[in-house]
Structures are given as structure tokens and as C-alpha cells.
Amino acid sequence: MEKHLKPYFDYLLKEKHFSLHTVNAYVKDVEAFFNFTKNTVATVNELKYQHIRLWIAHLSEKKLSNNSINRKIASLKSYFKFLYITKTIEAYPLQAHKSLRIKKVLQVPFSENEMQQIDRSAFPDDYFGLQNYIIITLFYTLGIRKTELINLQLHDVDLQKREIKVLGKRSKERIVPILSSVVGLLTEFLQKRNEQFGSDFDKNIFLLKNKQNLNQTFVYRLINNYFRGVTSKGKKSPHVLRHTFATHMLNAGANLNTIKELLGHASLSSTQIYTHTSLASLKKMYNQTHPRSKTDDDDL
């Protein structure tokens, strides 16, 4: 990391309370921009919006999607806002910038039938097979994010109260209830975990065979490997499981506010995206319950 980016790194990590993964991604984007402009500008105060437009054109020529470019520009926005509020620069070069248009892709959740096919018999009959099954089960029954699962610690689980404390975005904590069926699985797993690793490993719940914490690549591959055998859907990831959790809850009658709290969303607008995928369920219920659906004569 460039020396001049260290204050920005500390600001995101310590004041904004972003995860280390997010902070590293932001800093990497900013570094890429400065590498692109290093031969044209000497100081940050010389940077103009035209330099940013050239970078956008460069990224587009490299066939990056508008969504990826918008994410990189969001990193730049954050960085220049930091420079502006710390009075390092006199003008904010991205003030008039508008995000590139992106095509909205509807996230398709797994069906209930597909989820039923991911049962315990599909996993190896050993400790790590059980761990893999527990990981997928928690994604589906808690609706947690990938990083939230990776960072779960032993003291976060209260089996007596049937609760798990989840550390969400910007270090915001929330309590998520555990289903009775999952309590039994967790009890068995934690006992075997103690046998596998001993009581000294009392931090993260889930560990790799080398006793290291899980990483994002491992978790993504785990979900993809198991679900490619039960579904033809293109996207198979932890986020799709989170989406599946919310959609199935909504289809079963849960209200949006409840789902919002369980997911740890800051506002309902983030949760409302799941209403689109339950449209088929709404149509089915509408056709089954509306009085006019029982007759072919709309004039009655």
C-alpha cells in the first residue's frame, strides 16, 4: 500500500468501521487509479474530473462491466471525500459524476425442492463433512452474509437461548434466533469441534483442516460444489442462499420488517428487492383467493 493512502486506510477501518476486506478493496481501487495517472499529474490537487473520465474509458476498453466500474468509482468518491473533509484538496472532482447505467439482473433464489436435496446424506460422514453441512444450513436458516459466517465465534452462540450474535456491516451487532432443529445440529457439531481441535481453539467456530480460519474463496467453492448437483441455475453462491432465505420467508407470510431485522438491513429499501422474486407466489395466492378467480364470467 502506498504511504499516502495509510491515513485513508485507517479512516475506513477505525472511523467508518468497514471490514478489512472492504477497506483493502477500496484502497486497491484507489491505487489502480493513481497508477493510471502517475505520468500525467504530480499531486492530488492537480487531478480533474477529465482524468477520472479517461480512467473510466480505460476500464471500459478493458471490458469491465458498468457495475464493476461503478464500484471502482465509488472507491474514488470515498477517497476524495476523505481528502476534502481533511482539507487535503480544495475541490471535490467527482461532485458532478453520475454512475454508469447498469442492467438490473434479477437474483434467482433456490427453490424449496432444491434446498431439500441438500441434506446430511450428501456430505462425507466425518467432522469436516458435518461442518460443511452446518455452514450451508446456517446460510439458509439465518440469512447471514458470507463474512458474517466466516467471523462467527464460539461465544456468539447461545444454545440455551437459541440465539446467535452476528457482527454485520460497520460492526453493527444483531441477534438472530436459531431453529430448534439447528440447535441439535450445532450441539453435535460443537462437541465434535472440541474433539477435533481441543479447547484451545476458542475463537472462530469454523476452521480449515490446517486450523486456519475460513476464507471467502473456500466458502464460495463449498456452496458452488454442492449446489451444482441439484440446480441448473447459473448463480450458486452464499449470497443466493441469503436471497433464498429472505424469499422463502416472504413467500411463507413473513412481513418485510421482520425480514429486514433478520438480514441486518439498515432500511426497508434494501429488503424490498426480495419482493420481486416472490411475484409468482403472490400471483398464485391471488388466483386462489380472489372471488373473481372462481368464475369465467367477469361480469358477475
Automatic annotation (TrEMBL):
Main location: cytoplasm
Keywords: Cell cycle, Cell division, Chromosome partition, Cytoplasm, DNA integration, DNA recombination, DNA-binding
Ranges where the Core-binding (CB) domain occurs: 1-84
SUPFAM superfamilies from the UniProt entry: DNA breaking-rejoining enzymes (SSF56349)
Entry annotated with the keyword NADP: no
Transmembrane region(s): none
One Pfam family of this chain: Phage_integrase
The protein's name: Tyrosine-type recombinase/integrase
Source species of the chain: Paenimyroides aestuarii
